[in-house]
Design brief:
The protein has 4 helices and no strands. Helix 1 packs antiparallel against helix 2 and helix 3 runs antiparallel to helix 4.
Length: about 100
């Protein structure tokens, strides 16, 4: 169950990272409320996952899911660059996440 919590935490991290842009520096009320809520849920799931997983592995995977997911949605929804260097970086992060999961 710890891995499920960790994936949920990572997905919520994507949510709050994407929401952070919509807050416009926390000047918009509802995007700010939703973003802070997503942050809290993300940390809560991470804390649950840490009951059973090593901190180094869990934290790296949590941030990796967030980084890759946010980059993907930035490209897909916000029209951010999808150049070769950026895609290679995303692929490296993904390979690191897989390596950490397989080593645990």
């Amino acid at each position: 169950m710890a891995w499920v919590y960790l994936v949920l935490a990572g997905l919520m991290e994507i949510g709050w990272a994407m929401g952070l842009k919509q807050t416009q520096g926390f000047t918009r009320l509802w995007p700010s409320v939703l973003t802070i809520g997503a942050m809290a849920v993300s940390f809560w799931f991470l804390a649950l996952a840490l009951k059973a997983l090593p901190i180094g592995t869990a934290y790296a995977i949590w941030t990796g899911i967030g980084a890759v997911g946010t980059a993907f949605f930035g490209i897909w929804l916000l029209g951010e660059s999808a150049n070769l260097g950026r895609l290679a970086g995303i692929a490296l992060i993904l390979s690191g996440i897989v390596a950490l999961k397989l080593s645990d």
